[in-house]
Amino acid sequence: MRIPILRLGKILLASIQTDLSDNDVLQFQNDVVNTIAETETLGIAIDITSLDVVDSFMARVINDTARMARLLGAEVIICGIRPYVAMTLVEMGRDLIAADCSFNLDQGLKMLKQLISKRGDADLDGAEDDVQRA
Amino acid sequence: MAQKMMYSAHSLEQIAIAGPQDIVKARGSVRALAAQLDLGVADQTRLATAVSELARNVIQYAGSGTCTLSDCSDDDYIRIRVIVEDHGPGIPSIDMAMKDGFSTSNGLGAGLPGTRRLMDSFSIESVPGLTTISIMLVRERLREKLK
Q1: Which of these CATH numbers, 3.40.50.300, 2.40.37.10, 3.10.20.340, 3.30.565.10, describes B10-140?
Q2: Of B23, B41, B114, the CB nearest to A21
Q3: Total beta-carbon pairs less than 8 A apart between chain A and chain B
Q4: Do B45 and A52 touch (CB under 8 A)?
Q5: Across the interface, which of A20, A87, A96 has its CB nearest the CB of B110?
Q6: pTM for this structure?
Q7: Which of A86, A89, A120 is CA-nearest to residue A102?
Q8: Out of B20, B101, B114, closest to residue A92 by CB
Q9: What confidence score (pLDDT) does residue A130 get?
Q10: 3-state helix, strand, coil in chain A (%, to 5)
């Protein structure tokens, strides 16, 4: 079970649609990090609306993936955590999810664009081409 | 009235835990049982998450084991009991294992203490060769008011 990672200009988009085994989750982490490195993406939105269980292992992998992506230079937003997943994660204790989150993919993409433009080192609208030409 | 103090398991489902896919299966089964007994989505999620944590511990520390789901409900209460058992090396220190942030496997150390917080009852017995963790979620049965 591999999660497709889609490219949307300088942003990546991944949507987890089924319950994942631990191996699937680790494969996904690997795919995300490699795709970011290959494409030099500025940000990734990970939609987990369909995940109805996020236990401590998955929470850790999500956190780790976000940290790895940031080390490479990409911003990360986790989109669409279900209310019952949020309740369970908080009841279990401590800050199990430390990444930035948004209600949905739409808001997530807006947040990503803001984060990227705030950095000031890259432009989403083809600035890279200008630099190369200069 | 004395009968109400006693409850026996109505239905039993045993799931063999031997690989990562069985964790998915176990949490799916307990969610289905909770839904079937009319528990809300929040409780379904609590149970599925708790079972997921315990089943993963089995894989991680013992390699294989079993997860038994039982419905111990009566007229007044819905009770779901889950017993997770393995024949691994056992938990060296239960006190340490129940501490937040303690892990012998580089994990978050949130699994066992987190599971205890999600459930209404939680017990561990562990000796080398047999570890048994029993959890239960108890909810008062919502019934239409008699008029």
Answers
A1: 3.30.565.10
A2: B23
A3: 79
A4: yes
A5: A96
A6: 0.87
A7: A86
A8: B114
A9: 42
A10: 50, 15, 35
**What are the residue boundaries of the structural domains of chain B, listed by start?**
10-140
In sequence order, what are the residues at sequence separation of 6 or more whose Cβ sits closer than 8 angstroms to the Cβ of residue A116?
A: A10, A42, A43, A75, A122, A124
Task: For residue B45, give the nearest of A23, A84, A93 by CB distance.
Answer: A84
The mean pLDDT value for B51-62 works out to 94
Contacts of B113 in chain A (CB under 8 A): 92-93
| pLDDT for the residue numbered B6 | 52
DSSP 8-state class, residue A75 = E
The yes-or-no verdict on residue B147 having pLDDT over 50 is: no
Chain B residues whose beta carbon lies within 8 Å of the beta carbon of residue A59: 108, 110
Which residues of chain A, if any, have pLDDT below 70?
94, 122-134
Chain B neighbors of A21, CB-CB under 8 A: 20-21, 23-24
The domain over range A5-133 is classified in CATH as 3.30.750.24: yes
B95's tokens: 């006190």
* Structure tokens, B23: 């964790």
Asked if A19 and A51 count as a contact pair (C-beta separation under 8 A), the reply is yes
Question: Are the beta carbons of B117 and A53 separated by less than 8 Å?
Answer: no
ipTM of this predicted complex? 0.83
The pLDDT of residue A119 is 84
Q: Give CA–CA dist B98/A23, Å, rounded.
A: 26
Model confidence over A47-60: pLDDT tens digits? 999 999 999 999 99
Interface of B with A (CB under 8 A): 20-21, 23-24, 27-28, 31, 41-42, 44-46, 48-49, 52-53, 56, 59, 100-101, 107-108, 110-111, 113-115, 117-118
